[in-house]
Structures are given as structure tokens and as C-alpha cells.
Design brief:
- This protein is of the alpha/beta class and 211 residues long.
- Helices cover 34% and strands 18% of the residues.
- It contains seven helices and seven strands; from the N terminus they run H-H-H-H-E-H-E-H-E-E-H-E-E-E.
- Helix 2 packs antiparallel against helix 6 and helix 4 packs across helix 5.
Length: 211
């Protein structure tokens, strides 16, 4: 599938955004041949399995100018890089504990000349600061992820939706989310017609605060 898949679902892109999305496949093919961070099948379906999947978060939540977003376990840069292209006035921090993945992310960022993103080789527990939203693609079960990111969400919300976690997951989540009564689950098949999204979801978990 080509970048036209993205344009199909996101029609109000600027020429710069279209150019950025269009460059992704070449950049990832080039760097993936040197440092394997995405499977061969996934590279062939990059725009479906990685880019559009990442942008599923944007169907649930838009990010304000100046908002700060943390992408935990970003791997090759997902969902952070596609979201950063879509929201150029929002600041993104992409974190992964595996150095070679961050190396690829930095080269992709250089190729795109994206200036609203920084990539950090670190465990999320060691990241300082706090963020409006934390995004990720199924790097751990929700209880583990909540523990990892504790204290990293800003108390004051500037979006209509309260600050929290936006998590891309698949399959049956009833057991994993049984203790999170405030969690909301959004089916991506409601937004995207491709079979790939039949079981894919975005989980929104608002941050709780005492006081």
C-alpha cells in the first residue's frame, strides 16, 4: 500500500505533511536494510501496519499547540513520528531502551527535518518531566505500563479530554483492563475499513489525581 492510504483518511494535510508522509517508506527501507527494526512484511505494508495504525490515536484525540506527548517504547518511531507529522505544533519525546532503535529514529527525524521531536535512549522510568498524554503501541500489559509511567502525566489538562494514556492494543482486553473502571476503548474498525483494524483498539486511560 502507498502513502495514498494516509491521504484517504486524512484529507486536510498541508503539502509539507504530505511530503513528510511520502518520505517515510524510503527512509525506513534504507535504514531497515542496515539496522533491522521492522520486519520485511511490515516494511512492505508500512503505511497500513505502522503509519495509519499510529494515526488511529488522532481519530480519538487531537493535540493542542504546545502540548507535550511522550511515546514510550517507540521502537522505530511509532506512533510518535506519524503523530508528530500530523501535529507539527505539538512537542513529542520518543523513548526506547534499545539504542539501535533510537539510532534509526534519529536518522528518520534528520531525513524529515522534523523539529518538534526528540528521541531519547532510556528507560521510561528514568525520563524526567511530565506530559499531557503518554502514547504507546502495546509494549506491556496495562498494569505494568501504568507502573512504568507513574508520575509522568501533567495534573493540569488543556484539552477537553483529561490528560492520560492513549494505548494502541489488539484483541480481548477485558481481563487486562478489569481494574481500570475509567478506561475507554475505541475500536479502530469504526474509523478504518481495512481488515487489519478489525481487532485493533485505542485504550484511553485518564489520569487520576487526589485532592
Amino acid at each position: 500500500m502507498t502513502v495514498d492510504l494516509i491521504f484517504q483518511y486524512f484529507e486536510k494535510l498541508t503539502d509539507v505533511q504530505k511530503s513528510h508522509f511520502g518520505q517515510l517508506e524510503l527512509l525506513y527501507r534504507d535504514w531497515n536494510s542496515k539496522i533491522n527494526v521492522v520486519s520485511r512484511k511490515d516494511i512492505d505494508e508500512l503505511y497500513l501496519r505502522h503509519v495509519l495504525h499510529s494515526l488511529g490515536i488522532a481519530k480519538i484525540q487531537t493535540f493542542n499547540e504546545g502540548a507535550e506527548i511522550l511515546d514510550v517504547g517507540t521502537g522505530g518511531g511509532f506512533p510518535g513520528i506519524p503523530l508528530a507529522i500530523l501535529f507539527p505544533e505539538t512537542r513529542f519525546t520518543l523513548v526506547d531502551a534499545i539504542g539501535k532503535k533510537i539510532k534509526v529514529v534519529n536518522h528518520v527525524l534528520d531525513g524529515l527535518q522534523l523539529d518538534n521531536v526528540k528521541a531519547v535512549h532510556s528507560r521510561v522510568e528514568d525520563i524526567s518531566g511530565s506530559f499531557d498524554f503518554i502514547v504507546s503501541r502495546a509494549v506491556a500489559a496495562m498494569p505494568t505500563f501504568v507502573r512504568w509511567t507513574k508520575g509522568k502525566i501533567k495534573k493540569n489538562s488543556t484539552h477537553e479530554r483529561r490528560n492520560g494514556i492513549l494505548y494502541l492494543k489488539g484483541g480481548d482486553l477485558s481481563e487486562e483492563l478489569k481494574d481500570y473502571t475509567t478506561a475507554q476503548i475505541f475500536d479502530l474498525k469504526e474509523f478504518f475499513s481495512e481488515e487489519f483494524f478489525e481487532t485493533k483498539k485505542v485504550v484511553y486511560l485518564p489520569q487520576k489525581f487526589k485532592g
